[in-house]
């Protein structure tokens, strides 16, 4: 195997280069020991208290620690969130967490690239409302490293497609969607401009959907190259289409382990909620 489970938590891991938008991300906790659960489930401890298993696991791929979070359509809902209705974007998972019940959230993560105000620069749909149109423009930066792509879905059907594929074949507006770039894996092959293990190393996160319709969210807990992250999706997760979400500003909220990453301002947020949660 190319990866191993982490035996001990790693604390205060930060990005290796300063983010243009602000301070580098601080990781307050690395979560999820052992085999991942498809969804957080309550477990009674010896003291009689109830803990919640994490939807995320910590692993090492080659020499890099990662956190892998699994969303399953039968047990989770996926949505996008930018900010309170009619207000400015949250700009952080801390602000988002203060406005939402931790009990209902399996995990949340930054989900795409944005402008100076935190608004998405590509296609973005929240609760069926399109807040930004699909971008086919050329330009500089990771977003414009073609092919880029879209993570989207409605109900229990979630997908990652290249932007051209989405434009040509998706006719109905999904319930959620976010455009980012570059694609890491396209139809089982690495992006043509991504090398095996390039010199650019940052804290990075991404999403891919497997053949069973499950969404695999990955965030690195140390600096990682595009190539290594892409190979993890292709070789270990067997995901044929994976999309890069962002780098250096990447952050995760996992209430099950009290992990709440802080750092540079973010933009769009993807939220994975528990279907079986009730506010008793």
From TrEMBL:
Coiled coil: none annotated. Keywords: Glycosidase, Hydrolase. It comes from the Bacteria. PROSITE patterns: PROKAR_LIPOPROTEIN. Signal peptide: none annotated. Residues 106-251 form the Phosphodiester glycosidase domain. Pfam families: NAGPA (PF09992). GO terms for molecular function: hydrolase activity, acting on glycosyl bonds. This is Phosphodiester glycosidase family protein.
């Amino acid at each position: 195997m190319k990866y191993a489970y982490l035996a001990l938590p790693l604390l205060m891991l930060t990005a290796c280069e300063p983010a243009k938008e602000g301070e580098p991300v601080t990781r307050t906790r690395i979560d999820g020991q052992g085999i991942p659960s498809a969804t957080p489930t309550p477990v009674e401890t010896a003291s009689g208290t109830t803990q919640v298993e994490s939807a995320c696991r910590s692993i090492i791929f080659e020499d890099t620690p990662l956190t892998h979070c699994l969303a399953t359509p039968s047990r989770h809902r996926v949505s996008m969130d930018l900010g309170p209705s009619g207000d400015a974007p949250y700009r952080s998972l801390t602000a988002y967490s203060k406005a939402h019940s931790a009990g209902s959230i399996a995990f949340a993560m930054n989900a795409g690239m944005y402008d100076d105000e935190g608004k998405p620069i590509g296609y973005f749909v929240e609760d069926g409302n399109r807040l930004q149109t699909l971008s086919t423009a050329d330009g500089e930066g990771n977003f414009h490293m073609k092919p880029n792509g879209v993570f989207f879905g409605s109900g229990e059907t979630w997908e990652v497609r290249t932007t051209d594929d989405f434009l040509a074949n998706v006719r109905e507006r999904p319930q959620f969607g976010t455009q980012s770039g570059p694609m890491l894996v396209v139809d089982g092959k690495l992006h043509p401009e991504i090398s095996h293990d390039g010199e650019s190393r940052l804290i990075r996160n991404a999403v891919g959907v497997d053949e069973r319709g499950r969404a695999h969210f990955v965030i690195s807990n140390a600096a990682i190259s595009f190539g290594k992250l892409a190979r993890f999706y292709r070789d270990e997760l067997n995901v044929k289409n994976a999309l890069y979400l962002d780098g250096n500003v990447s952050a995760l909220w996992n209430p099950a382990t009290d992990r709440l990453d802080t750092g540079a301002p973010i933009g769009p947020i993807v939220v994975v909620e528990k279907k079986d949660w009730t506010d008793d």
